[in-house]
Amino acid sequence: MSKLNINLNFTSIEKVAGTYLNPAAESKPLGNYNGASFEEIFKQKIEAGSELKFSKHASARLDERNIELTEEQSLRLEEGVQKASEKGITDSLVLVDTLAFIVNVPNQTVVTAMDQTESEENIFTNIDGAVIV
Protein backbone atom coordinates (compact mmCIF):
# COMPACT_ATOMS: atom_id res chain seq x y z
CA MET A 1 0.00 0.00 0.00
CA SER A 2 1.45 3.40 -0.97
CA LYS A 3 1.45 6.45 1.27
CA LEU A 4 -0.04 9.75 0.12
CA ASN A 5 2.27 12.71 0.62
CA ILE A 6 0.14 15.51 2.14
CA ASN A 7 1.28 19.13 2.07
CA LEU A 8 0.18 20.95 5.25
CA ASN A 9 0.99 24.44 3.90
CA PHE A 10 -2.28 25.10 2.07
CA THR A 11 -3.89 28.53 2.58
CA SER A 12 -7.40 27.63 1.44
CA ILE A 13 -9.72 24.70 0.92
CA GLU A 14 -9.81 25.57 -2.79
CA LYS A 15 -6.07 24.91 -3.09
CA VAL A 16 -6.44 21.59 -1.29
CA ALA A 17 -9.31 20.57 -3.55
CA GLY A 18 -7.46 21.80 -6.63
CA THR A 19 -4.35 19.86 -5.75
CA TYR A 20 -5.88 16.57 -4.64
CA LEU A 21 -9.21 16.41 -6.42
CA ASN A 22 -8.48 18.05 -9.76
CA PRO A 23 -4.80 18.98 -10.11
CA ALA A 24 -5.22 20.01 -13.76
CA ALA A 25 -7.80 22.70 -12.96
CA GLU A 26 -6.66 26.22 -12.22
CA SER A 27 -8.28 28.42 -9.64
CA LYS A 28 -10.32 31.06 -11.45
CA PRO A 29 -12.15 34.04 -9.95
CA LEU A 30 -15.94 33.85 -10.07
CA GLY A 31 -16.26 37.21 -11.77
CA ASN A 32 -15.10 40.78 -11.64
CA TYR A 33 -17.56 42.76 -9.57
CA ASN A 34 -15.24 45.65 -8.68
CA GLY A 35 -15.76 45.37 -4.94
CA ALA A 36 -19.57 45.42 -5.16
CA SER A 37 -21.44 44.06 -2.16
CA PHE A 38 -23.43 40.84 -2.32
CA GLU A 39 -26.67 42.87 -2.13
CA GLU A 40 -25.67 45.05 -5.10
CA ILE A 41 -24.68 42.03 -7.19
CA PHE A 42 -27.88 40.19 -6.22
CA LYS A 43 -30.06 43.17 -7.24
CA GLN A 44 -28.23 43.46 -10.56
CA LYS A 45 -28.80 39.76 -11.29
CA ILE A 46 -32.48 39.99 -10.32
CA GLU A 47 -33.04 43.05 -12.52
CA ALA A 48 -31.22 41.47 -15.45
CA GLY A 49 -33.46 38.39 -15.30
CA SER A 50 -36.70 40.21 -14.59
CA GLU A 51 -38.12 40.34 -18.11
CA LEU A 52 -41.81 39.53 -17.89
CA LYS A 53 -42.93 36.58 -20.01
CA PHE A 54 -46.39 35.64 -21.26
CA SER A 55 -47.45 32.00 -21.16
CA LYS A 56 -48.93 30.40 -24.27
CA HIS A 57 -52.34 30.58 -22.61
CA ALA A 58 -51.97 34.28 -21.77
CA SER A 59 -50.78 35.08 -25.30
CA ALA A 60 -53.79 33.25 -26.73
CA ARG A 61 -56.16 35.16 -24.42
CA LEU A 62 -54.63 38.49 -25.47
CA ASP A 63 -55.14 37.56 -29.12
CA GLU A 64 -58.69 36.21 -28.61
CA ARG A 65 -59.74 39.29 -26.67
CA ASN A 66 -57.97 41.76 -28.98
CA ILE A 67 -55.98 43.17 -26.08
CA GLU A 68 -52.93 45.19 -27.04
CA LEU A 69 -50.76 46.64 -24.31
CA THR A 70 -49.27 50.07 -24.79
CA GLU A 71 -45.65 50.56 -23.76
CA GLU A 72 -46.85 52.55 -20.74
CA GLN A 73 -49.22 49.74 -19.70
CA SER A 74 -46.44 47.17 -20.12
CA LEU A 75 -44.19 49.20 -17.85
CA ARG A 76 -46.95 49.51 -15.27
CA LEU A 77 -47.59 45.75 -15.44
CA GLU A 78 -43.88 45.09 -14.82
CA GLU A 79 -43.95 47.61 -11.96
CA GLY A 80 -46.94 45.81 -10.46
CA VAL A 81 -45.16 42.44 -10.68
CA GLN A 82 -42.09 43.98 -9.03
CA LYS A 83 -44.25 45.34 -6.18
CA ALA A 84 -45.89 41.93 -5.77
CA SER A 85 -42.46 40.33 -5.60
CA GLU A 86 -41.30 42.78 -2.94
CA LYS A 87 -44.34 41.85 -0.82
CA GLY A 88 -43.74 38.12 -1.22
CA ILE A 89 -46.81 37.47 -3.35
CA THR A 90 -46.59 34.26 -5.38
CA ASP A 91 -49.69 34.41 -7.59
CA SER A 92 -50.90 37.95 -8.12
CA LEU A 93 -53.76 39.74 -9.76
CA VAL A 94 -52.32 42.87 -11.38
CA LEU A 95 -54.83 45.47 -12.52
CA VAL A 96 -53.73 47.97 -15.17
CA ASP A 97 -56.52 50.31 -16.25
CA THR A 98 -59.36 47.94 -17.27
CA LEU A 99 -56.99 45.03 -17.88
CA ALA A 100 -56.55 42.19 -15.39
CA PHE A 101 -53.54 39.88 -15.38
CA ILE A 102 -52.87 36.80 -13.28
CA VAL A 103 -49.11 36.54 -12.81
CA ASN A 104 -46.90 33.83 -11.36
CA VAL A 105 -44.50 36.23 -9.67
CA PRO A 106 -41.48 33.95 -8.96
CA ASN A 107 -41.42 32.83 -12.62
CA GLN A 108 -42.15 36.37 -13.89
CA THR A 109 -44.87 34.87 -16.11
CA VAL A 110 -48.30 36.22 -17.00
CA VAL A 111 -50.60 33.21 -16.78
CA THR A 112 -53.78 34.77 -18.16
CA ALA A 113 -55.18 38.14 -19.16
CA MET A 114 -58.59 39.69 -19.59
CA ASP A 115 -60.36 42.97 -20.00
CA GLN A 116 -62.50 43.56 -16.91
CA THR A 117 -65.27 45.07 -19.03
CA GLU A 118 -65.77 41.67 -20.74
CA SER A 119 -66.19 39.72 -17.53
CA GLU A 120 -69.55 39.80 -15.77
CA GLU A 121 -68.52 38.41 -12.39
CA ASN A 122 -64.98 39.78 -11.94
CA ILE A 123 -64.07 36.87 -9.66
CA PHE A 124 -60.41 35.92 -9.45
CA THR A 125 -59.31 32.71 -7.73
CA ASN A 126 -56.02 31.06 -6.83
CA ILE A 127 -54.21 34.31 -6.05
CA ASP A 128 -52.53 35.37 -2.85
CA GLY A 129 -52.38 39.09 -3.52
CA ALA A 130 -53.43 41.91 -5.84
CA VAL A 131 -51.70 45.01 -7.13
CA ILE A 132 -53.47 47.95 -8.73
CA VAL A 133 -51.23 50.16 -10.87
Task: Write the CATH architecture name of the largest domain.
Answer: 2-Layer Sandwich
Enumerate the spans where pLDDT stays under 50 for 5 or more consecutive residues.
Answer: none
Biggest pleated sheet = 5 strands, mixed
Count the beta strands. Answer: 5
Radius of gyration: 24 Å
Domain module count: 2
**Structural class determined from secondary elements:** alpha/beta
Mean pLDDT: 81
Strand order of the largest sheet: 1-4-3-2-5
Describe this structure in words.
The chain is an alpha/beta fold. The chain folds into two domains: 13-45, no CATH class; 51-132, 2-Layer Sandwich (YaeB-like fold). The protein has helices spanning 13-20, 38-48, 56-64, 71-86; strands at 53-54, 91-96, 99-104, 109-115, 129-132. Strands 1-4-3-2-5 form a five-stranded mixed beta sheet. β3 (99-104) and β4 form a beta hairpin. The model has no long low-confidence stretch (mean pLDDT 81).
Give a concise summary:
The protein is 33% helix and 19% strand. The protein has 133 residues and is of the alpha/beta class. It has a five-stranded mixed beta sheet.
Topology summary:
Layout: H1 13-20, H2 38-48, E1 53-54, H3 56-64, H4 71-86, E2 91-96, E3 99-104, E4 109-115, E5 129-132
Key terms for this structure?
elongated; five-stranded mixed sheet; single chain; YaeB-like fold; 133 residues; 5 strands
